[in-house]
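Sequence in, structure out. Go.
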Amino acid sequence: MRKFDKFAVILFCVFPLLFTSSRAQDLSETLKKLSNLAAQSYLKPVSSGFGANLNTSWSNRVPSSKLLGVDIQLGVVGMGTFISDDNQNFAVQGQYSFTYSQAAKIAAGVSNTSARNAIISQLQTDKYNVTFSGPTSTGKEYKAGDDKSEVLIDFSGKTFNVNGTNYTVSPYTVHTGIGGALKDMSMLPTACPQMTIGTVYGTQATIRFLPKVNIIKEAGDLSLLGFGLQHNISQWIPVPMPVDVAVGFFTQKLKVGDILESKSSEYGLYASKTFGYYLLNVTPYAGFSFQNATTTVNYTYEYDTSVGGVTEHHADKISFDLDGENTAKLTLGLAFKLSYININVDYNIAKQKTIGAGVGLIF
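Output:
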């Protein structure tokens, strides 16, 4: 996009562990040069990784099966999605209106000045079928000079009729100079506060909550709300179980002003077994779950055109949804309790693999 500063600011807020100010600015400058369709493909690995993060670290212990009790965990959970070799590059066809500088280069071969200016004007105002290709936001750089090292816009050429005369413009490849803005990252991390409270008839609730805070004025208020329930079903199984087993459902929503909203949910079967004593124990845990995540992006696409020497400013409202790639997930983890301190770590096997960890107080 020719103007995408706010979205970069949002990413800076959502991934506080990932971006420095300079990295957010780099991403902003990158996205200014991409169209709507190209931006969707370019950002897909980041959006999908973010969705995988939101569905990580919900549970590290199955609730006890007692009818009434006080079981509370309060702390911070962190998640990280590993950047894989998949989705390193993209190629997508769509429509695009060229900037003045791009149009001038495309039409440079037309010798007639008035015809060339008319074609330049038309290239800026009409939309043309092009192919966007190159590295995604997490795509690695290739050797110097390799076309895969930057995002390209391929124009297939066209014959224009100007005042009854045909002028053929040859195919042209626009070199944007855009590489993978996050190419040097091996993981996309995030973190949030989390509280789990129970137990009532083997059921406990988990809450993730961040009240509205205005971190950066342009982005608007940042807020997060998530909740979930787990119910121990071991008590309803007539045969003694070697481990505690629960069913669970979790959902959450993160919103940044009117620009970004991400929703995710997960439901599945979870198991754990505690070994040791009340103040010193270890708990292996596992889970198999299904999940989904969708990120909605809204922004203003701003750009300038120059027609007949007159520069005009345009602002188009753009909105699109990006769905996460993970659908099913296997979780394997281990939790340690020392006095009232709980530490857990887990590995999540899915299309996009994640690691989760948490630290906090447990009563």
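Check: The two ends are 50 Å apart (CA to CA). The first helix runs from residue 5 to 14.
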